Amino acid sequence: MAEPKLSSIKDNRWSLHGMTALVTGGTRGIGHAIVEELAEFGAAIHICSRKQDDIDKCLEEWKKKGFNVTGSVCDVKHSHQRQKLMETVSSIFQGKLNILKLYFYV
Asked: Which GO molecular-function terms appear in the entry (predicted)?
């Protein structure tokens, strides 16, 4: 797990350790940047994307950085895929989701 971005080791007000996040569209652009920031502050994150290859590439990169990130395929335009995503996230995070970031690629 990556060390949180803190100006002082004693200053924990910005720590996200113990927090969970779901970031849709987390493999590119703004979504990718949000995952990086949340992970640097210690959050456990689940991402989704429409392409497994994109997810695998990002997960490999984040694993090397020591980030706690998981991912699954989901096109959030489809309700049955959103339902499955929420079941997956609930299982991974034992029903606890602190941060939700939705992003739709058009």
From this structure: oxidoreductase activity
pLDDT tens digits for range 50-104: 999 999 999 999 999 999 999 999 999 999 999 999 999 999 999 999 999 886 6
Domain holding 25, by residue range, is 20-101
Q: How far apart are CA 12 and CA 29, in angstroms?
A: 28
| Separation between Cα atoms, residue 22 and residue 44, nearest integer Å | 9
* Residue at token pair 């309700």: 79
| CATH number of the domain enclosing 77 | 3.40.50.720
**Phi, psi of 54, rounded to the nearest 5 degrees:** -65, -40
Contacts of residue 13, Cβ cutoff 8 Å, sequence gap at least 6: none
